[in-house]
């Protein structure tokens, strides 16, 4: 069982709100214990979020990304990222799959979920491509 520290619910609500500029939050393990803490939030999108990730870190991120097939179909979609850096210890890696279920008890609205161990796994264009695919019909051949 994972424990939660910080006002994660408020951060989640902030990312979800169309009235807020906050578009990501990061939960990480500040100690060896099974406690997830709110490590940060930001307004700089996926690029700013990925700057927070470290190879020796396990974390969960939640992002609001605006995507669409054209300027008239722009929608906010939400991404849950399970981050497991390449240098994360074996026991922490093993617990991530269990902890994701508990994270989802707070972070409920998700269009796509991505498991990443490298920043290359969460490049902007690839994430948007996955989101467009999740949106359903895509009549714009360049985004297939």
From TrEMBL:
Alphabetically sorted, this entry's keywords are:
Actin-binding, Cytoplasm, Cytoskeleton
This protein's GO cellular component annotations are: actin filament; cortical actin cytoskeleton; site of polarized growth
Alphabetized PROSITE patterns for the sequence: ADF_H
Q: Which InterPro entries match?
A: ADF-H, ADF-H/Gelsolin-like_dom_sf
Residues annotated as domain ADF-H: 1-132
Name a Pfam family for this protein. Answer: Cofilin_ADF
**Annotated GO MF terms:** actin filament binding
Q: Does the keyword Cytoplasm apply?
A: yes
Biological process GO terms, please? Answer: regulation of actin filament polymerization
State what protein this is by name. Answer: ADF-H domain-containing protein
Organism of origin: Geranomyces variabilis
- What are the top taxonomic ranks of the organism? Eukaryota, Fungi, Fungi incertae sedis, Chytridiomycota, Chytridiomycota incertae sedis
């Amino acid at each position: 069982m994972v424990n939660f520290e910080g006002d994660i619910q408020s951060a989640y609500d902030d990312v979800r709100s169309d009235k807020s500029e906050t578009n990501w939050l990061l939960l990480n393990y500040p100690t060896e214990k099974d406690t997830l803490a709110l490590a940060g939030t930001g307004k700089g999108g996926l690029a700013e979020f990925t700057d927070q990730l470290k190879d020796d870190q396990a974390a969960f991120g939640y992002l609001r990304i605006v995507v669409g097939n054209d300027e008239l179909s722009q929608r906010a979609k939400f991404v849950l990222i399970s981050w497991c850096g390449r240098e994360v210890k074996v026991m922490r890696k093993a617990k991530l799959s269990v902890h994701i279920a508990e994270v989802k008890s707070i972070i409920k609205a998700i269009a796509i979920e991505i498991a990443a161990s490298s920043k290359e796994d969460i490049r902007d264009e690839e994430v948007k491509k996955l989101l467009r695919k999740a949106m359903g019909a895509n009549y714009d051949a360049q985004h297939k």
